[in-house]
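Quick review question:
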């Protein structure tokens, strides 16, 4: 039996729940994720380099502080590089969507009747459908589009805050009051949940991108099949792959549709290859994610579905981290 929760722990749980809710309501998820990423990177690297074991309090603070500055700088450059890539001709998402619409329009004659009946009549109808979807999800689109600059600013501020918090480990925490210690424990649990789910998903996405790259760059050209926008599809595979379960569906749909530009056989072959690869990856994913947060795929899907219904696209992104944190809290009280 676990010991009864103190009033300070109960207050910390309430404050943590309110804070996580407000993060979604106020569109501060990019700042939270950036801060957690920075904090965990500094934390992991400092331990690997054994900076926290340096002699002298000032030496520890200086060493970890310099490491935090380096991490923030590299992450900022990475974000700018990703934005620049997707704005360039090689990674232009708009060009990819336009190409997919044109492919669907021109591929109608190659498809079976039962598939053709479920497709838009032409590229114009597909664009109209996309326009209707954009109107229905205007809030999410505004967050992604018009507020992109503000989101980038939030990311930078979040990284700075994460870097500053990373210095807490090398400072004396004995002076904290009971509520502050309870809140710090909640923050540590959230950080651990983030590290487990996100770092595991990065490894999974990297593996998926590597295998997909071999198929797009190596296997298909050997068969005489040269698809357009290969680099863009590889980038989409990695970025979308950071989202559990749904990411693979997004990237696979893009690859299969673009394969239709060559032939129906190429599209079927791409679909078969991707299904086989993801079946093999299933065991790796189960080992990586399952052992990290002890959650089945259906649990993550249910959490993502519920969060999407409540908060839209932002909820889908936050769901795995929030669910891993909630499960960790409940497990710590032996309620699961």
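Suggested answer, residue by residue:
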């Amino acid at each position: 039996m676990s010991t009864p929760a103190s009033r300070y722990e109960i207050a910390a749980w309430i404050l943590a729940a309110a804070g996580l809710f407000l993060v979604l309501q106020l569109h501060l998820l990019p700042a939270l994720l950036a801060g957690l990423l920075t904090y965990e990177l500094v934390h992991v690297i400092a331990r690997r380099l054994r900076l926290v074991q340096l002699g002298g309090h000032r030496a520890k603070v200086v060493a970890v502080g310099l490491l935090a500055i380096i991490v923030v700088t590299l992450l900022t450059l990475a974000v700018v590089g990703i934005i620049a890539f997707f704005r360039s001709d090689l990674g232009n998402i708009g060009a990819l969507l336009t190409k997919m619409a044109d492919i669907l329009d021109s591929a109608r004659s190659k498809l079976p009747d039962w598939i053709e009946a479920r497709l838009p009549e032409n590229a114009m109808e597909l664009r109209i459908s996309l326009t209707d979807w954009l109107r229905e999800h205007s809030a999410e689109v505004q967050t992604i589009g018009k507020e992109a600059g503000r989101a980038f600013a939030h990311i930078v501020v979040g990284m700075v805050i994460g870097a500053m918090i990373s210095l807490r480990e090398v400072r004396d925490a004995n002076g904290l009051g009971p509520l502050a210690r309870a809140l710090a424990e909640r923050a540590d649990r959230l950080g651990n949940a983030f590290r487990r789910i996100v770092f595991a998903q990065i490894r999974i996405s990297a593996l998926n991108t590597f295998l997909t790259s071999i198929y797009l760059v190596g296997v298909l050209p050997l068969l005489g099949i040269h698809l357009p926008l290969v680099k863009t599809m590889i980038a989409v595979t990695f970025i979308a792959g950071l989202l559990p379960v749904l990411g693979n569906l997004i990237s696979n749909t893009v690859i299969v549709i673009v394969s239709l530009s060559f032939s129906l056989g190429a599209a079927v072959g791409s679909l078969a290859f991707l299904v086989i690869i993801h079946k093999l990856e299933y065991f790796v994913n189960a080992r990586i994610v399952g052992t990290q947060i002890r959650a089945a795929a259906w649990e993550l899907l249910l959490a993502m579905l519920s969060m999407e219904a409540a908060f839209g696209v932002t909820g889908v992104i936050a769901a795995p981290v929030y669910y891993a944190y909630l499960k960790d809290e409940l497990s710590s009280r032996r309620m699961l």
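Why it works: The chain has a mean pLDDT of 75. Residues 7-332 form one domain.
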